[in-house]
Amino acid sequence: MPDYVIVGGGSAGCVIANRLSADPSVTVTLIEAGGRDTHPFFHWPAGFAKMTKGIGSWGWSTVPQKHMQDRVLWYTQAKVIGGGSSINAQIYTRGNALDYDAWAEEEGCAGWSYREVLPYFKRAEDNQRFNDDYHAYGGPLGVSMPVSPLPICDAYFRAAQDMGIPYNPDVNGRTQDGVGFYQLTQRDVRRSSASIAYLNPIRDRANLTVLTGLQATRIVVERGRAVGVEVVEGKGGGSRIIRADREVILSSGAIGSPRLLQLSGIGPADELKRVGVPVVHDLPGVGANMQDHLDLFVIAECTGDHTYDKYAKPWWSAWAGLQYFLLKKGPVASSLFETGGFWYADPDARSPDIQLHLGLGSGIEAGVAKLRNAGVTLNSAFLRPRSRGTVRIPGPDPFAMPLIDPNYWADPYDREMSIRGLRLAREILSQPALKAFVMAERLPGPDVRTDQELFEYGCRHAKTDHHPAGTCRMGVGPDAVVTPDLKVRGLDGLRVADASIMPRVPSSNTNAPTIMVGEKAADLILGRDPLPPAVFAGNRRPHALVREAAQ
Question: For position 286, which CATH number holds?
Answer without folding.
Answer: 3.50.50.60
